Amino acid sequence: MRFSFAIIGLSLWLSAAVTPALAQAPLPDVPPALLEDIAVGSRVLADFGVVDGFGHVSARHPTNPNHFLMSRSLAPALVTADDIMEFDLDGNAIDARGRSLFLERFIHAEIYKARPDVMSVVHTHSPGVIPFSVSKAPLRPLFHNAAFLAVGVPVWDIAKEFGSTDMLVRDGGIGKSLARTLADKPVVLMRGHGDVTVGPDVKIAVFRAYYTDVNARLQSQAIGLGTEITYLSTEEGAKADAINFAVIDRIWNLWKQRVQLGLAK
Amino acid sequence: MRFSFAIIGLSLWLSAAVTPALAQAPLPDVPPALLEDIAVGSRVLADFGVVDGFGHVSARHPTNPNHFLMSRSLAPALVTADDIMEFDLDGNAIDARGRSLFLERFIHAEIYKARPDVMSVVHTHSPGVIPFSVSKAPLRPLFHNAAFLAVGVPVWDIAKEFGSTDMLVRDGGIGKSLARTLADKPVVLMRGHGDVTVGPDVKIAVFRAYYTDVNARLQSQAIGLGTEITYLSTEEGAKADAINFAVIDRIWNLWKQRVQLGLAK
Amino acid sequence: MRFSFAIIGLSLWLSAAVTPALAQAPLPDVPPALLEDIAVGSRVLADFGVVDGFGHVSARHPTNPNHFLMSRSLAPALVTADDIMEFDLDGNAIDARGRSLFLERFIHAEIYKARPDVMSVVHTHSPGVIPFSVSKAPLRPLFHNAAFLAVGVPVWDIAKEFGSTDMLVRDGGIGKSLARTLADKPVVLMRGHGDVTVGPDVKIAVFRAYYTDVNARLQSQAIGLGTEITYLSTEEGAKADAINFAVIDRIWNLWKQRVQLGLAK
Amino acid sequence: MRFSFAIIGLSLWLSAAVTPALAQAPLPDVPPALLEDIAVGSRVLADFGVVDGFGHVSARHPTNPNHFLMSRSLAPALVTADDIMEFDLDGNAIDARGRSLFLERFIHAEIYKARPDVMSVVHTHSPGVIPFSVSKAPLRPLFHNAAFLAVGVPVWDIAKEFGSTDMLVRDGGIGKSLARTLADKPVVLMRGHGDVTVGPDVKIAVFRAYYTDVNARLQSQAIGLGTEITYLSTEEGAKADAINFAVIDRIWNLWKQRVQLGLAK
Predict the structure, then answer these.
(1) Whole-angstrom Cα distance, residue C17 to residue C22?
(2) Residue A37: which of A264, A259, A265, A261 has the closest Cα?
(3) What number is the ipTM of this complex?
(4) Contact C157 D2 (CB under 8 A)
(5) Is the pTM of this model over 0.80?
């Protein structure tokens, strides 16, 4: 499930070269750096295999809290700043110009409604996480980079409220249910689907998506060792998560170089 | 078991450059797009490690339901549209021109006979699946991209009808046995060998081959967590599989870019 | 534990470009194709991660059964035809010209002595196999490409005859012990070390080294599913192994393209 | 968690090309080969996925035992000889010139104080090791390349002395505690964090970091086979570790080629 760097880079080059130029609706009141963070975050998670052909990264509009920014419907590995569109919190596109929308934009819309503190939302089908999403074993932090999991990781099962469905968050009602289960936490697992991570900016939300996946894989291996496991305490979780905030720029610059080097090829 | 994109691409370039041009039997009544889908599907599955040196993708002839199309005997990573040949449903090549045939073409021939609804067949030695093929643990869908598994995944053991063999589907009689076990399902596991996935077109059959392998790996990890697992219900399976049909073009275009970028290198 | 194709290729290019040219002792009575098979086999196994910085591939001299051919002491990823040297069955180099020898050449020497049927020997520190080498769980074939394991896989523990050692086959006495445990089998595991695979030619011995590692990994996963496992029967093993012999050239050509494309870069 | 070679290489090229040239404090009394070993060791471990955005390699100053050498705060994949700085054993930078320092330099400083025999220290967040760091299962050597583990692998839990913290070795007091737990061993695990490996030179310390991670992964798989495991005895450990010392240059040259080829691209 991993994309080699070479292919991500070539994909980006090719998509830039051969995709017919869409009549782009410029987003003049959004700093270009924010659009770039959304695009870089998507491609970083694709590069790590945390997302594959599915998954999305969004950010709340920096000056209009009732709007958010997300790519048109596109594989995460291919997202560029030019693909970012603007939405209201009912999931309606502002100035769609015929572009396809992610069916599950309601995940983002409803979380932005419910969580004024959240400025970025990431949805993945993270392979490390899917086994936990269908198991009774709670996801818990093993190590400091996943410290944000110490507050607890709720699991949302769509069937509880909606019976047998196609598993998708296809409207605001289902999105509200997901947001209720997320509550005030940084991560919610979606049974048989994937997860959502949130944060005060794109870098933190993407960092959390990545390290939730890493922690899931490592916790799975730790469980296989067959003994009691020492997880981070709640207090350790809070203190170590402050460090994650302190180091985020260093790790983001490394990740950005990885995907931009792809672009440069 | 993974092939890096760079090598797939270089392999394709080299095979085009140095393989002596075979006296190609053109297939004038087959749309080139279909031949390309078969080739792309083979290379995508090789790229993902779902097939290695072995495995094959076929499609029923679009206008003659008693014929099907499959590559000459060639590693899946190397298949191009020019390698595709035409066969009847007894596995005989139409216009062989001295090209080698896949020994196990009877897998495809007999399934096309037994299943008028099937327009594409994929055979893999999927590493994720082989452990399930030899175990009593039934393969069941964990997540929505593998929803098509919810109808049940039969396991065909060649020894039941044929005793100790070389494990290969080397004639129509063995192929009929496999087709009987497949019945009306989308996937059948082959004990100690691999699997077959089928679908109404190449893209769906290849999608199913990929996500059967992913599901097997994730289910293996979920089992290792040691608790009860919540699988997709039959109804969820049917509803979510409809979504897989809705998104197939988006994911196919991403996969096609991956292997074609290899070609362009 | 995986080497990307790009780096293997670049390693080969660089080693050809910058390694001081050794005063090479030509091997005029050895067909160049055999020297190339040894080099290709080494690099293929390095590429698959079956060997890393350690491990070696040898072939019995085609016209002098009391000599064998193996690279000078060099990481397997870097071996070229020019690195191949000739040895007698006591492990002495014919015309050493100051080149370093593999400390464990006695593995090869003693097996060629004990097994007149063997024309190629491969030694690896295969990661898939090492867990089985230290466990009581017997390695058994799950699928047809590993059919040659059906005759049984002995485990040689150096401590049985030699007490606490540095684990290396550093002389003929230890090599004889290993050859006795190998007996008439195609594979022997070496406790806490790796394995040895043998065959009637380099391609088969290398094929066996690769598929022994694959089978070990898949068997480990199958065991984790927690149910009874259906292994290949002895008769299935014999019949399916005949097929491995039938397809070896196709798979070898694919593998050779992979590492030679590396060279071409 | 793996970085492809291509990206490491491109990262190095890009960082050399676009990182503003720092006013470099030259280290005239340090042999350039030592600075290169530190840089190569960092990039090798990043390449293997043993370190990701975090982790560091240091060496004691060759002529002043009260100083040590380590990169400025930088992702391990990006370290070059020009990034190396000099520190005293209280973790103070000699001639900082505004460069950022690793927060956890106290790991290195305190171990150099406590261990006169140690000439190199490596700190990783090794994914293979983290599950062992939180489990009661002791890490023990499965195979000869990990023979140095036979003397025992202590686990340091910061909470024992310091209660709930952010898990970091952020001052000399915490560093002393870690050094006490390391005692005279070559490796110490850090609960919920990673590990530290030490050695008489950079190559050995880096070798140990790599093979500790490999051993952890293989031991995890061996445990999953469900039987008694035969680990290396203490005596085997001592004898086999002498061989690791004997082969270190061969493996280092292979690893160095891998990352330098990245540079050359």
Answers:
(1) 12
(2) A259
(3) 0.87
(4) no
(5) yes
